[in-house]
Design a protein that fits this description.
- With 162 residues, the protein is mainly α.
- Helices cover 56% and strands 0% of the residues.
- Helix 2 runs parallel beside helix 5 and helix 2 runs antiparallel to helix 6.
- The radius of gyration is 17 Å and the shape is globular.
Amino acid sequence: MQRGAAGCAAFWNLAAKSGFIDETVRTDDWMLIVKVMAILTPKGELPRSGKLRNSLHDPKKRLGALLCDGGDPGWNSSQQPLLSETRLMRLLAEAPARRGASLERIARLLAAKRKTDAGIDCTEIAALVLFPTSKFATRGIARDYYRRLDAAASENSQKELA
């Protein structure tokens, strides 16, 4: 997303209703967060069952793990991670001022490849944008990615031994 962009009417309507339009709020950051959430929100017809879609926000679905397994609980280490380790490291090492474009590209990848009912911990996305110099968010993403990768490898090893 281009910094300093004017945004769209839907963003400003949301911002006004949410009360985050004032001099202290970085609206460019919030525009990016809203854009990434819009990209990640499932598109298309509502389920015919009449049930509502699952919420996009799921605090149990950590961003790092989702970048590894794409939200597939059956994913195993014989499959490639959704996001390669190289791309993950590029995202985490990206200069904070340039991380927005990378985050948007990764959101598009997630939207295209993840299981549609897989939620995501949206607070982690917001933290990457709102607290760009904090190592807390980047370390958490790396930790969860590698925990998921290691857990899958461990599961495969146990299956081979059985």
